[in-house]
Amino acid sequence: MAFQIGNKVIHAIHGFAEIINVESKEVLGVSSEYYVVKTKALILWIPVLNQSKESLRVPTIKSDFPVLFDILRSHRVPFSENRKERKTYISRMLNDGATESICTLIRDLSYCRKNKGLNETESHIYKNAVVKLLDEWKYSMSISQEDANTELNTLLSESYALST
Prior knowledge:
The chain is an alpha+beta fold. 49% of the residues lie in helices and 20% in strands. Strands 4-3-2-1-5 form a 5-stranded antiparallel beta sheet. A hairpin with a 2-residue loop joins β2 and β3. The longest helix has 22 residues, at 120-141. The termini are far apart.
């Protein structure tokens, strides 16, 4: 098993979580081991054997955050004006599960939010992505939510300056 009870993990869709147990469950007549993963709002069962890298990963280590900061402060990538292409890009970035992808998405959505506005779905995605990033950030960097949020806003302001 790659993870142990008590390990902090990042779920690709639901964000920061903790392995609270490993249980055997029978599904469709087949018995398998599952990680029991607790997020802020959910309890998830993730198969131990078929657990792909996309569903659970270890939190980003502190020494890797400067790369994330560089992404957040860098020049944005303009979204396609085509709604379907934009939706596909956003979905791909969200489902990737990598912190780098979440940072890129936050940077780009933040710029649109500030300058053009976001539709209701994009606004919801932006808010959830920020929460996911800040939860991982505060854990990995051992800082408060407020400090992580302040630093995020500073980095995004640097990105805005490059994009004008």
